[in-house]
Amino acid sequence: MSELEVRSTVTVEAAARPLPRVGTVLAGLFVVFLAVAVIWPGLIAPYGPDAIAPRDAFQPPSAAHWFGTDESGRDIYSRVIWGTATSLLIGVTATAIGLSLGLLLGAIGGLGGRALDFAVGRVNEVLFAFPGLLLALLVIVLYGPGPVTATIAVGLSTAPGYARIIQGELRGIRSSGFVEAARVLGHSPSRIIRRHILPNALAPIAVLATLGVGQAIVWASALSYLGLGAQPPAPEWGAMLSAGRTYITTAWWMTVFPGLMIVLTTIATTVLGRAITSRRGGVR
Amino acid sequence: MTDVAAPRDPVLDVRGLEVSFGTGRVRRAVVQGLDLRIAAGQCVAIVGESGSGKSVTARSLLGLAGADAAVRADRLDVGGTGMLRAGEREWRRLRGVGVGLVLQDALVSLDPLRTIGREIGDALRLHRRMPAAAARARVLELLELVGMPDPAGAIDRRSGELSGGMRQRALIASAIALDPPLLIADEPTTALDVGVQARVLALLAEARDRGTGILLISHDLAVVSALADRIIVLDDGLVVEEGPTTEVITSPRHPTTRALVAAVPTEVPRGHPLTLVDRSNALVSRPVTASAPREIVLEGRALTKTFTTRGTPTLAVDDVSFSLERGRTLGLVGESGSGKTTVARLMLAIAAPDSGEVLLGGSAWSSLPERERRPLRPRIGAIYQDALGSFDPRWTVERILRDALGPAATGTEVVDLLEQVRLAPDAAARHPLTLSGGQRQRVSIARALAEAPEILVCDEPVSALDTTVQARVLDLLDELQRERGLSLLFISHDLGVVRHMSDTVAVMRHGRIVEHGDAESVFTDPQHEYTRSLIADAPRLRSLG
Q1: Which of B208, B106, B223, B218 is nearest to B162 (CA)?
Q2: Which protein family is named in the record (chain B) (predicted)?
Q3: Quick check: A85 contacting B, CB < 8 Å?
């Protein structure tokens, strides 16, 4: 009671001027680095992505080649940088596809009547029954491998998760006190949806999407690794991993560094997503 | 301190207790210089508004003040043990054995995934190393002792499957399981219906008579007066008054105490303010024109409503009829689950009755299609128990009021509304989250007034508030009714509040109205047995009752 009130004032004061944690700052810096790699890779990559130098094949990491070189003497560091755009594009596009589909499905279930709620719920459960990657593989089997199919496949397989969350969020807000209060005031359903339901439902979903990008990159890389996404000469992280696995005993750097990029990117986006979530949580 | 009735060793002896939060320069003292002595078989109450430091005191006595709290005292003997320099281990050993705790909300105090038998039995097995079978037998005994209906059945149920009153009893059973010499009860009855409240208080009185010392914490002087031998009044962390219960209640010296005494609505007649702020208006009684037949603004006719949960139909509202006259207040009183809120929703046409009809100003209301009803909705406003939940969490007070006023609203209109509910203009820029409970309820009243309604449906509007805050909100509603000729449908489980606010009263039980009539006659000469038990159970200031 009383001490809860004391605590809550303290939290509100703290939320007004929060100091970001070290991890959040590092994650932010890494995302800035990724942004540069996407927009202007030539600025930070010393070589071109496909600059072959057979004489320099299988060089371990050195001052000249920070991440070493591959079987054709291409600089791994440069390829990782040039590949950022492809990998991130796949991640972001896949998340956007998943989110739009989820939004559509979730809105039908969440804003429609009880029958639609039920129908969408069951469809979702069926989709949930398949592991996400299996769903993605199914799409690729039907439409052939390649970066575009892989992106769509990953997007499709994440859609049920988003749909379920959006549906639940919308349902919850629909039955909330403030929506009822708006109804009592005589506001029209369209106004209530526009002013109350959608804005309140979409805010947490925006945060969810930042968490989803990292996940989508991992999945897209996994597909590329299996040879179903971006194809070998392209400097995509998953494809680079796949190419390097033949030489994993002799040239560890060929797999470790692309893998490290995937891990770091996922961690950075996740950490940032979490930071935004907790910040929002403090305000709400 | 003239304690004649304390020859035995005290079970609680605290001198100069000081609790502060924060660090360095922003350190804030929430309790200062509190002395507290409780003898075996004695009950001492700490009363005060929320934020006065009551609960922090209780927590400090259990070593639960929190990591960011600094607790200092000259003496801190709890249950006969000096705890001044105790570490977490010592405190853990003391809790349950030396001191038991009863909290307000049993739903969150009990683990929802474990049966109450295990929850209570844990204390026995942990501290007494009792074998499982013996512990179970003792738990049954305890449940019997606290008057749990069907102890053998209840022992294997989870807290979510029990009613509020039963949960509170389970919690008391776990608090007294180890027979601690001291029991700390922090707002033990605040969330409960009057009947259950009376039984819980009786239970605590039994424990006291068996020789347990009780520290009772509450914002409600009426609840406290039934049980406490001594009362300590806290205001902003300072003891402002202390003495034997009767003395504190009959001749309160400090303004805070006087406000607390005045805020108890049970004995205050209709139309008289509960706050002491403007004594000059205190005698403004309402004009008595009861004899003249009045226009009926809202009427329910033979309403029924059934809810079906997992195939089992429940009759929430059963053949309910009543009418609300212009400018008057109809009080609807009953325990939780009696169907009061469903009636409110039917009146607001948020829910549709299965049969029967609601008429607004003599014409169709519940039977209208929503499209035709919508333009009429401004005629009837609503305020809710959970004011905060009725506001869009993203919005400031200004945005909330503008939304209710309509697109052409000006800044002055917003300020006007705030002024009508006695809020300062700078409240407009705040988020409801940063307002106090009373202020939030004022904002919700302002929103309801924005559309200039004839009728205001108030569903438990003050149940979540402290008595003094409650008094101010009730006075506000009363004033607004007089100024604007509002008709109120006032719903509450609190008999004292309903009695103070209403011209006519309907008593609800199990979805039916069991008694209906003029407020004074219902309360002074109740006809139905249930009404009589409600009146008997309502807490009142001991000396006056």
Answers
A1: B106
A2: Belongs to the ABC transporter superfamily.
A3: no
| Residue A155: inside a domain | yes
CB contact burial B134-157 (16+ within 10 A = b; e otherwise): ebbebbbebbebbbbeebeebbee
pLDDT score recorded for residue B545: 38
Q: Where does the pLDDT of residue A73 fall: very low under 50, low under 70, confident under 90, or very high at 90 and above?
A: confident
The pLDDT-based confidence of B24 (bands split at 50, 70, 90) is low
Higher pLDDT, B41 or A233: B41
The boundaries of the domain holding residue B477 are 297-388+453-537
Tell me the average pLDDT of chain B.
Answer: 86
CA distance, residue B427 to nearest chain A CA (Å) = 16
Domain membership of residue A40 (yes or no) is yes
Assess contact for B144 and B138: CB atoms under 8 A. Answer: no
Domain that holds residue A204: 22-283
Nearest to B485 by CA among B375, B329, B293: B329
**Which H/E stretch holds residue B295?**
none
- Residue that the structure tokens 């009061």 belong to: B340
Neighbour count for residue B362 (Cβ, 10 Å): 11
**Count of domains for chain B:** 2
What ipTM did this prediction achieve?
Answer: 0.74
3-state secondary structure (DSSP) of residue A145 = coil
Which pLDDT score is estimated for B1?
Answer: 43
CATH number, position B493: 3.40.50.300
Q: Pick from B221, B238, B263: which residue ends a domain?
A: B263
Give first-to-last CA distance, chain B, whole Å: 27
Q: Which residue of B has its CA nearest to A3?
A: B56
Measure in Å the smallest separation between the Cα of A201 and chain B Cα atoms: 11
If one counts the domains in chain A, the total is: 1
DSSP secondary-structure letter at B508? E
Domain of residue A200, CATH code: 1.10.3720.10
Assigned domain for A1 exists:
no
Higher pLDDT, residue B309 or A136: A136
- What pLDDT is stored for residue B106 in this prediction? 58
Residue A217 placed within a domain = yes
Which tokens in the block code for residue B144? Answer: 């019997």
- Write down the pLDDT at residue A280: 64
Q: Using an 8 Å CB-CB cutoff, list chain B residues near A186.
A: 374-378, 451
* Residue that the structure tokens 């990782």 belong to: A80
Determine contact, residues B382/B457, Cβ cutoff 8 Å.
yes
| Domain co-membership, B474 together with B379 | yes
What is residue B107's three-state secondary structure?
A: helix
Boundary of a domain, candidates B218, B241, B263: B263
Given a cut of 60, is residue A18 above it in pLDDT?
no
Does residue B67 belong to any structural domain of this protein?
yes
Give pTM, 2 decimals: 0.77
A55 touches chain B (CB under 8 A): no
Is B152 part of any domain? no
